[in-house]
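Chapter review: from sequence to fold.
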Amino acid sequence: MPAIYDRIEEDLIAQERTLWTTLTSADPAPELAERLCHPESILLFPKKDIITVDQLEEAFSQPFHRFDEYDLQDVRVIVIDLMAGTITYRIRASRGGKQYLATGSSTWGQGSDGEWRLISHQETLQ
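The token string follows.
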């Protein structure tokens, strides 16, 4: 694999961890809308409707705190090209002693400004 692909893989893993840190914050909507998401992003969570960027405030209305802790396991990155990639993984998370086990997948695209933006995110319960 070319060295540039290694850097892209590292960037995408870092972005996904930033996404999860944001999702577990008290108010993720502003960070998602302003910094992480492409204007046409979609987010798919178990037992929820499809969430678009213009629905973030409503979907993540306070108080919102999905998990106390999380761990991404079996992380795999597919570099689609120099400006796009998909990351898949297993999620092990908990909140208040309840376990959350799922698989996750996100597709990221790099804009002309060089920043990675979330195109789509999906979680599937195991």
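Two observations follow directly from the output. Strands lie at 37-44, 51-52, 69-81, 84-95, 98-110, 116-125. The radius of gyration is 14 Å.
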